[in-house]
Specification:
By secondary structure, the protein is an alpha/beta fold. The protein contains eight helices and seven strands; from the N terminus they run H-H-H-E-H-E-H-E-E-H-E-H-H-E-E. Helix 3 runs parallel beside helix 4 and helix 6 packs across helix 8. It is globular and about 40 Å long. Bound molecules: S-adenosylmethionine. The site of S-adenosylmethionine has 21 residues, from helix 1 and helix 4.
Length: 218
């Protein structure tokens, strides 16, 4: 099995099974349901998805914006793994979705992003920070914070530490897991002013067994 030191190799090898796995637990629908009721969505936002993978979070947010009639002015997304981005671009082409920009980059080296990729109102990220070396989490958060407008927010979905996730995600998907205190500490070190934990609505409340939703203000 590939070591967690090389997430790009793992997601190149296993991107199809990743998509099958997350579909089986209705993860895309859960993310969409969160954004369908999020007060952070409004017309004309500049939005960035950090570690977009095959686009599940970007597409959930895009669909929620369309359904709510609040189209973003920019929806940008980056990921470390070209094979994940290829799948995302195939989906965008197949569904004839325009206006979503994608690029390859490492969240720990954001200087590689296009120069215009800054000044965001909302940055989202799901199931990616778990793949960074643990001491790098505050640096990654601080790098994203630097790309937010004053008053902008970061919404992070991140796998929680419990015995079930240790088996299902930690071991199977070679991921780090976090508890609430570790997450709060990392956001504080990154300089965020306010951090609260959100929740999945209604039917999708079971996804809380998997992860935290962290809502942070720059
Ligand atoms: C479990 S997938 C999550 C993808 C997507 N956000 C989702 O929710 O389905 C983890 C993704 O994080 C990406 N990733 C891992 N380390 C990264 C890094 N340092 N910078 C950017 N992306 C990274 C991987 O390439 C992979 O696509």
């Amino acid at each position: 099995m590939t070591s967690m030191a090389d997430p790009a190799a793992m997601f190149t090898e296993r991107n199809r099974s990743y998509v099958r796995f997350v579909r089986s637990v209705l993860y895309p629908q859960g993310l969409r349901s969160y954004f369908l009721r999020s007060p952070r969505l409004r017309t004309g936002l500049r939005v960035l998805d950090a570690g977009c993978g095959t686009g599940i979070l970007t597409l959930a947010l895009h669909e929620a914006c369309l359904r709510r009639g609040v189209p973003p002015v920019a929806l940008d997304a980056f990921d470390l793994t070209p094979a994940m981005l290829d799948r995302f671009r195939e989906t965008l082409a197949a569904r004839v979705i325009n206006g979503i920009a994608t690029t390859q980059a490492d969240v720990l080296h954001l200087e590689a992003l296009p120069p215009s990729w800054t000044g965001y109102d909302l940055i989202v990220s799901a199931s990616m920070m778990e793949y960074l070396p643990r001491p790098s989490l505050p640096d990654a958060l601080a790098g994203l914070k630097a790309r937010l407008n004053p008053g902008g927010s970061l919404v992070l979905f991140i796998t929680r530490r419990n015995w079930l996730m240790n088996l299902m995600i930690g071991r199977w998907w070679e991921s780090n897991l976090y508890d609430a205190g570790e997450i709060e500490g990392a956001f504080q070190r990154a300089g965020f002013s306010r951090v609260v934990f959100g929740s999945f609505p209604g039917f999708f409340r079971y996804l809380a067994l998997w992860g935290y939703i962290v809502e942070a203000e720059a």
